[in-house]
Each structure stands twice: as C-alpha cells, then as structure tokens.
Amino acid sequence: MWWVTLGIDFGTSTCHIYVPGRGVVIQEPSVVALEVDSGRPLAIGQDALEMLGRTPRRVAAVRPVRHGVVAEVGPATAFLSHVVRR
After folding, report:
1. How far apart are CA 80 and CA 83, in angstroms?
2. What residues contact residue 19 under an 8 Å CB cut-off, 6+ apart?
3. What is the pLDDT of residues 27-73, one digit of tens each?
4. Please, which of 20, 33, 35, 66 could form a disulfide with 48 given CB 3.0 to 4.6 Å?
5. Residue 53: what pLDDT?
6. Long-range contacts of 11-19 (CB under 8 A, 24+ apart)
7. Cβ 60 vs Cβ 42: under 8 Å
C-alpha cells in the first residue's frame, strides 16, 4: 500500500490540490454538471464551468460549495473523487 500526502483547499470557486515537494498540482473550478434524473456527473471542473448557465433542462451545473460550506454532498464527493484520481 502507498501513501501520498495531499493538501486540499476545496474552495467556493476553485479547488487547489497541493503535493509537498511539487507545489499546487491541480487548480480546477469547483463546478459539477449533473444529469437531473439520475444525479450522474456529466462534466467536472473546467468542462462543467463552461456549461454553467447554458445547460438544457435535463442537465444542472452546480457549485457544490457555497459560502465556504459543502452544500451538495453528492456532487462534492464526485468532484473530489475525480480530481484526486487525476
């Protein structure tokens, strides 16, 4: 088993991931585009940001963190899972 130390700043507008010795390795907008019926993530980060305000009714682009608090747990989990895997 291997371990990596990460510093995660899951901000309202941007998520930063820091790795000691490498610096900030990921800066991604904190936005998730979801399929409304199933809740399945369709786009995350920059791709979802470009969809914000321009989605059809079956797709909702949301910011999972509002005013410094995780407001949407499902989208926040999908977002963090995506960026940590990167």
Report:
1. 5
2. 4, 5, 6, 7, 25
3. 999 999 999 999 999 999 999 999 988 889 999 999 999 998 999 99
4. 33
5. 87
6. 11/65, 11/68, 12/63, 12/65, 12/66, 12/67, 12/68, 13/63, 15/79, 15/80, 15/83, 17/83, 17/84
7. no
Q: Are 51 and 36 in contact (CB under 8 A)?
A: no
Q: What's the gap between Cα 74 and its chain centre? A: 11
| Residue 11 DSSP class | -
For the stretch 5-21, pLDDT in tens is 899 999 999 999 999 99
For residues 33 and 61, is the Cβ–Cβ distance under 8 A? yes
Kindly give the residue spans of alpha helices, DSSP state H, lying in the chain: 46-51, 73-85
Contact at 8 Å (CB) between 11 and 48? no
Angle in degrees, CA 54, 56, 58, rounded to 5 = 135
